[in-house]
Amino acid sequence: MNQATRSRYSDTRQQILSTAQAIILGKGFAAVGLNEILKTAGVPKGSFYHYFESKEHFGSALLENYFEQYMILLDEQLDDNGCPAVERLLTYFTNWKATQCGDTTTDKCLVVKLSGEVTDLSESMRLALKQGANRVINRLARVVQEAIDNNEIDIEGDARTVTEEMYYLWIGATLLTKVNHNPDALYVAMNALRARLNLPQAETA
Questions:
Q1: Does the domain formed by 59-196 have CATH 3.90.1150.10?
Q2: What is the model's pTM?
């Protein structure tokens, strides 16, 4: 495969994944047919298996692609930009709350959308979710550790454990936001985050 062919292959594959993510965020994984994805992506119907071995393989690739894009966004938000580490951390979770409370489907969390649906259906997709979540936790833990090292926060427990507590809390709160059709759980999560970091309370529903 020459460079031009590889480039077209990569572009088409990415087009399928990006199109599918937007659709699946709205409908879920099982409810979306391959024909709908390919038609929306403008890709010939018979070419799906040229890019993916199976729908399960496609689902794993979808999640891996999602986390790759998410990690880029995470670095943009959390890299040292002159602001205190704890401020960058709070900004990240404030943005999380804003996107999950909004009406835009494409801003929603694919981890929350698919975790309950696919973990019993596909071991490879379960592992993709697990590995991706661990990458997010590791990146957030680096900022928590930075805040500790800079004496911005004084907390009980190591940075990794505290970060796991926060991440699991926010995933659960995001799920309850979907269940309840209101953002109260995310306001609770923000106050719990501030309490865990020994910061003043500031969020009210």
A1: no
A2: 0.86
